[in-house]
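Deviations from the work plan: none for this task. Representative record:
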Amino acid sequence: MRWEGAASVQLCDGWYAAIYANKLRRDRPLALRRFGKDLVAWRDNDGRAVVMEDACPHRSAKLSLGKIQNNAVVCPFHGFEFGNDGRCTLVPETTKAAPNLRCNLIPSLERNGFIWLFHGEPGSMNSEPPWFDELNDRFPYSQLQSEWTCHITRCIENQLDYAHLPFVHTNTIGGDFDVTNQSIKFDLRADFIKLDLGTGFFCFKFPNIWMLEILPKKFYQFIAFVPVDENNTLILLRAYQSFVTVPGLRNILGAILKVQSSVILNQDKRVVLSQTPRNSLLADEEKLYRSDDGIAYFRQVWQEKSKSEFKSS
Ligand code: FES
Ligand SMILES: [Fe+2]
């Protein structure tokens, strides 16, 4: 089924940072919605992430209502079990496996504390998701999650937009930002959009990660824009900092950064949720200015990289 009222909507192909890895358990299935589909995620005996469509191939009950047992997810309706390759490992009434009965698996990888899900044609799958070299394994972070009722394109564009800073963030981060500064110029590439702000830079990497450098090697903000469905996007935000190293103080600072980030994010959310149409690829009548060069380029590349339809189930 196509998206209601938005037949031309497409989602960029690629690996999406889609779930905080610490949400996945070995003892309990997790229900979630991504790419317009209901999914179930769990960990197998080796700790590997398994992500499947949340519908039992027997008679369509939600597997996420079941349990994990025998290295398989067990359907709550008639007890069929499905292993980490999606195949049925047990039909209780026959006491046998039924390998041809299988759940649809979503390609997944675990990297940098995220479960990444692939959207697109399998042939176009890169072996590795994108990342930022600045954020290595040893970098401590605090993280939060925010749910926005808008299309992913509007969320991403908001983070490419520097001209909103003094207006939306007057009393937080943007008060004295000079929007007339003509030296601000985007670096527009096939896989990323980068902007040097003078005091630091931000970079967006297709399809869904963004990073702001606040202090080189010491302080970064990171966002993954997660497509839930046509009208819902999850913002997974992390503050990475290495200037406080004492564990107790680090936790206190982490809590303060979380509060501060959520205040700033809510300032953005208020205006972004007011934009129509919700999907920016349908916003043909908008008049873009020089400061919107990153957004214009984003729209062009997103269209080009959207080979697969964004389907709901
Ligand atoms: S619906 Fe899942 S076992 Fe019957
Ligand atoms: Fe903002």
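Residues 1-9 have pLDDT under 50 and may be disordered.
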